[in-house]
Design a protein that fits this description.
Helices cover 31% and strands 18% of the residues. Helix 1 packs across helix 2. It is an alpha/beta fold. Helix 2 links the parallel strand 2 and strand 3. It has seven helices and ten strands. The chain has one domain: Rossmann fold, CATH 3.40.50. Bound molecules: 2-amino-2-deoxy-6-O-phosphono-alpha-D-glucopyranose (GLP).
Amino acid sequence: MKVTILKTAQEIGRTAGEMFVQTVLAKPDAVLGLATGATPLPTYDYMANACKEGRVSFKDVSTFNLDEYCDLPKSHKNSYFTFMTENLFSKIDVNSANVHFLDGNAPDAEAESRRYAAEIERAGGIDIQFLGIGRNGHIAFNEPSDKFTNDAFKVQLTESTIEANSMYFDDVPMPRFAMTMGVGSIMRAKKIVLVATGKSKAEAVFAMIKGDIDPHCPASILKAHPDCTVLLDEDAASLL
Ligand code: GLP
């Protein structure tokens, strides 16, 4: 795990964004694993600007998002599909046919998990996986638990996660369940970049970097990945 502490969220966005740009320049049909949340936004701005300036084209890439809420229409303003469309996909030249999401409304979660795993495999596997981290050390929606998961599954969200995200929901209550890629699916990515900013992430970052590999801090498994970069601001790194 390569840990870098940077001064601002913008610098983190530039650094992570440039990793994505370089991946696509080296392999125009790269497979990108993408994340939602506030922390990735400067990275997505950087990627959108690089595309606008003509420095990179995303027309041949495939994207796979980490997770999606259950029991929320895909077109709802708070779905992760809408989040990605507004913050990245509408600003780059990605082909919408190559954009992949877990279906949070799939009637059979296990079949949906198999479908997603097969699509990732058909695309050739994820070249670079983007991650944020939850306050409780979750990655995607892999909440702290007694064991690590492998492929995608339906998860019941914890109170900590509901508390951190419910401010975004003003018309409907925040969903209690989500479909998420498993820890195994994340770990199979060739390269991983995790971003964390702010004091609210300091404890999770400490447990991820200094603690044992333990499913009660799902992000701690990333220490076992051969090519994982962690980009932090000083607040997120303040307990290290
Ligand atoms: C949600 C997402 C995660 C994300 C986390 C932190 O739980 N499922 O993928 O890492 O929020 O989001 P933020 O960056 O807004 O703190």
